[in-house]
Queue: 2 jobs
Job 1
Amino acid sequence: MTQIQLRIYYDPSECQVFCNIARKDGTLEKLTATIDTGAAVSLFPRELLDLIAYRPTDDASIIIDQAGIAKQSFQAVEAVITISLEDAAGNLTQPFEITAWFTDTETRLIGFKDVLDQSILHIDMPQRSGWLEIDK
């Protein structure tokens, strides 16, 4: 299992990881994403679709109904991308495919499908340390 150290923040409380997404030109698009244990699927800005290599799923254009107080819905493009996770020390997972949603947002989230559902997440907020153990 690869262990990726997370960037931990106290206020607002969140943890982040670097993502390397395969681009159409063969290079990598590096960005920071927040680990979201409440996100069913990883979420990225739609504008990335102009840069990255992806394969649309059978449900390429979908409507997502959010639960909770907001009870909002939004439209997204669902696609399979190749990603690797990296920490500040340079530890890196092997590239692997995930299903992700792309919508009109600046938010970048790592969710359950294909990532957290295959990982062990350790967070120690008082010590501001955390890591993701992922079998990739």
Job 2
Amino acid sequence: MADLLTRMESIYGRVYPRLPVALQNAALGTIGWHNDLTVRGRGFTRLLGEYEARTFADPGAVRELRDARLRAFLLHAYETVPYYHELFDQAGLHPREISTLEDLASLPITSKADVQERRSEFLSSAVPRRRWKLVSTSGSTGSGLIVATTLEAVQEQWATWWRCWRWHGIDRKTWVAILGTTHVVPARQQAPPFWRYDIAGRQIVFSCAHTSPENLKYYLSELRRRKPLRLHGYPSMISLIASYLIETKTDLGYDVRWITTSAENLLPQQTRLIEKAFGVRPKQHYGMVEAIANISECEKGKLHVDEELAAVEFVPITNTLYRVVGTNLSNPVMPLVRYECNDQVTIEPGELCSCGRPGRVVTDIDGRKEDYVVLMNGVLLGSLDRIFVNLPNVREAQIRQDAVGEIQFLVRRGVLYTKEDEIQLRAEIERTIYDGSQISIEYVDEIERTARGKLRFVVSSVPAEDVVGYKVLPPPSLSALGNGDNDL
């Protein structure tokens, strides 16, 4: 399974960078056209209608729908998935003894390491291979995982995401600037354009690997020329452009209507920067390839659990801090029951939202918080978790930086890690960090956690004054941004 996905992406990775820009645009457009026919095709339209019909449904009815799906899903996992058949038997339980979300606590938690080391035992014998769709993720700790799922499951995730975006008035025909893609522009390209077009998907896809101070003016020029009404992507990249606008005392020259973020946690200082520069408050949603949890922001600024997509548990750490543990009700190929994604959320007991949506309210998502690394050429590069997307034998990774252009990778190897994995890791690093920065890899048995038990993916102690061109975020300070608002 992993080998097939790796081979396909390897071929694409070798061919795509060698194509002329026009053919790279055509390649992206072909992918967009294919996705419109499949991922966002007929099944997606039906699912989106069903999800939107439940936007203001009775909370009890939504919980019953979730629990009914949970009961059927657990029985499917027990009868067709070797790992969960063994797990239930060892626990002395039968799936029929679990009927609600609360009952799941009687089962042990599944870790990413469990899935990585026993991958084949998580695959259902009831779903033929021709229905499989392979997707990959790096997660918030930098450890890779390849997930087998179905087209229908992917369509359901997209329906959940689009329900959220449509809450805010976003139409699927709206052109969007995607700010958060590493390899869409070959890493060694030195001159603009640092973006490519997916015409079928109505997307202008910008590289996040070329954002040096000298290059950001080209990004802004393209945004001003095309005037996409929506910006979507990594908070780290959007706030980087916002910072540049503030420091250079310029603007886009047109009004952006929507800014949406994903893949990273949206930090308060990033929200302030983005709102100050663009005049639009960003909206976030939280989701993942494993589909074990999804959380969407409503028009009131509250974060709601999308209850019907997954059975999401919040396991307490303190009175307000919780671990995210979930069961992916939509994926029959690779069921994940009580899977821990290593993210945390803050929940204020009794917090409600006046919007009328049925999902539980989350105060803050404390997952995927990333810093930048500063390359030798002045680029501030974020979202480096993508380096590990196709490296499932890496258990955990952390990137550390103490000086500009000097970057250290700490890697905890899995039992199946080989020399080939190291070769691929070095190739991915070179493909992403290409400017001559000094790179080192150190293998460790353990990576230090924060006081809250969280593994930070990027740990940087580079002083702001050492960054040429502009400061490490947040620039300027929060006090310099505002007009006295206290809305955060």
